[in-house]
Amino acid sequence: MVTFKQFFIELRDFCYHLNLKQGGRPDKFSLMAKLWGFFFSYFGAVVFIVTQTLAHFGILQKYGLFREMSFKTIVLGIIFFLLPTELFLLYMLRKVRDTPIPEVLPPEKYKQGMRRYAIGTVIGLLLMWGVGFYFVSFLRGRLHW
Predict the structure, then answer these.
(1) Are 54 and 60 in contact (CB under 8 A)?
(2) Residue range 112-136: average pLDDT?
(3) pTM for this structure?
(4) For residues 116 and 14, is the Cβ–Cβ distance under 8 A?
(5) pLDDT tens column, 67-121
(6) Percent of the chain at pLDDT exceeding 90
């Protein structure tokens, strides 16, 4: 059984080598962009559940949050959606920084990493899409489980 830390290390190594194969530079920003693309949909789904639940029970309306497009809405969107993903990735990268990235990734590990990255991203996007449609319908009483 692979622990989450081992999974994250393998994903980090794959993203590093994917960036090199695509002609990118081996810097922290490029690595973060690939990891961010993988994990954002999962955090987006969780944040969407929380915000829709708060909206359903009138908490967002009570405090006037997300009522109209304004600077406050943009700042709250950044805080709710972008900040948790960024903090999680920084925390995990700090936790695994002692594990070196291998100079060469064997072709079978690269193919396995590509499958994991693609399937994980698709599952995350489907989760975010499913939460967007089905959870809101469930809260509004149009869908019964």
Answers:
(1) yes
(2) 88
(3) 0.78
(4) yes
(5) 666 677 777 777 877 888 889 999 999 999 999 999 899 999 999 999 999 999 9
(6) 39
Query: What are the CA-CA distances from residue 5 to residues 39, 54, 72, 104, 115 (Å)?
Result: 14, 32, 36, 21, 18
Cβ atoms of residues 12 and 95 within 8 Å: no
Distance linking the first and last C-alpha atoms of the chain: 32
| Upper half-sphere CA count for residue 127 (Cβ side, 13 Å) | 18
How much is the CA Rg of the chain, to the nearest whole Å? 18
Q: Considering only CA atoms, which of 35, 44, 14 is closest in space to residue 126?
A: 44
| Nearest Cα residue to 113 out of 31, 8, 3 | 8
Cα atoms found within 13 Å of the Cα of residue 40, Cβ hemisphere only: 11
Q: Supply 92's token pair.
A: 């995990």
- Greatest Cα pair distance, the chain, in angstroms, is 55
